[in-house]
Amino acid sequence: MGNLWQKLQKHPLFRITLAYLMIGWIVMQIAEVMGPALQLPEWVLSAAAFILISGLPIVLLIAWALKQKGQQKAVQSPEGGRQITTLDIGLFAAVGVVLVMVALDWFRPDTKEQTTALPQIVSVEEAQGTSLSVPEPVNPSVIGAGAVSGSAAEKNSIAVLPFADLSREGDQAFFADGITDEIINGLNNIDGMRVTGRISSFAFKDKNIDLREIGQTLNVACLLEGSVRRQDNRVRITAQLIEADTGFHLWSDTYDGSLEDVFAVQEDISRKITGEMQLLLGQKGDAAISEVKTNNSEAWEIFLQARYLVTEPSPDNTPQAIKLLNEAVTLDPEFAHAHALLANVRLLTLPHPGDPKEKLSEAELSALRAVAIRPGLAQAHAALGWIAVHRRDYLGMQEHFDRAMQLDADDLQVLQGYANGLFAVGRADEAVPLLERLVAADPVQPLSHFFLATAYLMLGDVSAAEKSAQTAYDLGFGGANLPLSDVARLKGDLEAARRYTSKHIRSRLANDFTTDEIETLVNGLAGIENQRDPAVRLIEQALSGGDYANRIHFPAYLVQLEEPELALTLFAQNHFAVDLPFWVALWSPFGLATRQHPDFPAFAENIGLVEYWEVHGWPVECRGKSDSQDGQNAFDCS
Predict the structure, then answer these.
(1) CA 382 to CA 398: how far, in whole Å?
(2) pTM for the full model?
(3) On the chain, which terminus has fewer CB atoms closer than 10 Å, C or N?
């Protein structure tokens, strides 16, 4: 062994290899240090590495040829030709193995490896208060198992994964997320392109999951990932388009520019991705990718910070987001998207302390301002639709959502908001196809499955409701305990109904009732025999005894407890921050007693439901009476 080492040390090819590797390492260190300082694009570093690796075998071949030539001058070979030794062969083989290993590592499929906290869960009350989609934490085991999957991925399908923040201080996550959002929005503008919803894409943020598995879970043909590196007013964006089923790169590029150029960079990325997708599909043509939301870079950056806070929901983040959005619209009063987002964020505060009417008025001002600036902004019309729902203006709700759907029927916020608005007027049959589209576009968004389960329950499809509710629960949404409880009760499994109801009640009323009182409510709502009356008396006592943070659920609970007169009176006399729990209960199988109560026709007339139905048609549970004598209460509901 020692003899071999001595031979290697004396062998010129070995010494040249060592010298080449040392010089190459020094060159790469200099390039890595000087690249950012000189604002060199990232491809320079990759090109340098490629040249150095490719040059090694060339240098070795030249060195070997020179060695052979020198040997021939010193000693004439009997064969008159060049001689190659066993040691030469060994050195060439070793270098070849190293180069093959480097190449395999270079071209192998990428995986993501990061570990930071998941976004906090948001309450279903907040989600029901606005058309704004908000994130839910997703169970990593569900994602890893590929639990949400569909048929074979369409060629025109893509998911944009969250771009990594590679800034030196690591404080530009809001900026990286904002770039990702804008690219998603840009790709959504392309006809025929199916783009996975933001929440499903962002569910994989900071997860160590193979890209091929992500593609299978989201049922897409391509994935886009990248990084953002920002220093002062300079920004570098790297993007890579990856074939989902193999993990191999189809295209990559790096963009350098100033913050003022970032809109052009986003559009350039979207256009190049579109071109690659069109090549895959054999399509031709160009498309308008995205719109410049503001020419004020400071306002745009503040907008990104606010939007980032909204997607990381917490009691402190929402007021801070409102503050930032007010700053953005002050810097650029014509920033329509900031006005629209401000309207939606104000709606998120409805379940929190404060005057709901004042909050609705402020949200309306922001939404109307957005529409005045940009009449074609679908999200602003969706916000106005939800404001109308909260004001129990159902004709207005339909008008605004009709307009929003005309402008952008693929916008996920519009789909969710309109579906929930249809719940209020008893049109779950029309909400189902909207929610099914939402689930297809955002397959690991728990709220999509939750609302779909709710719609199925309202239609009496227990099996479909159970499947969707269980998916929402498996994806980490605790609010799914409510539809799971209803499913168990309809199937006659009162013990399971009691278990799910207990989780639901304790998560909302633990601070308002004692342990024994919660047990009373749970037993009554779960349908336990002889427990209905104690639960009703408890709610009556609570209503007469003070203000409860979660009293928005009381009308819905009274419907489920088959106490229709009190439920209808309470709902009609109070403008709750969020009405949706009541509507869900009313149009579910448990709302039959309330819908058939003698007071219900007058109730529906007084709050505007009959007027809506006469214009837009009756819900499946109700029908008009053509033979009404006095013209009053001219319908029946079952």
Answers:
(1) 10
(2) 0.73
(3) N
Q: Round to whole Å and give the CA distance between 600 and 209.
A: 53
CA distance 422 to 438: 15
CB 175 within 8 Å of CB 165: yes
Give the chain's mean pLDDT: 78
The number of beta carbons lying within 10 Å of the beta carbon of residue 125 is: 20
pLDDT (0 to 100) of residue 243:
86
Q: How many CA atoms lie within 13 A of 57 on its CB side?
A: 13
Distance CA 404, CA 384 (A): 10
| pLDDT, tens digit, 9 for 90 and up, residues 22-49 | 776 676 666 655 554 454 555 555 666 6
Structure tokens at 370: 């957005």
How many whole angstroms separate alpha carbon 418 and alpha carbon 402? 9
Beta strand pairing call for 222-231 and 157-160: parallel
- 124 with 447: CB under 8 angstroms? yes
Q: Residue with structure tokens 């990702």?
A: 180
d(CA 361, CA 442): 31
Lowest-confidence range among 298-312, 515-529, 546-560?
546-560
Under 8 Å CB-to-CB from 124, ≥6 apart: which residues? 447, 450, 477, 479, 482
How far apart, in Å, do the first and last CA atoms of the chain sit?
93
Measured at the alpha carbon of residue 359, what is the angle toward residues 353 and 362, in degrees to the nearest 5? 150
Most confident of 308-317, 499-508, 573-582, 618-627: 499-508
* DSSP assigned state of 561: T
| Contact between 614 and 584 (Cβ < 8 Å) | no
3-state helix, strand, coil in the chain (%, to 5): 60, 5, 30
CA proximity to 433, closest of 417, 400, 455, 411: 455
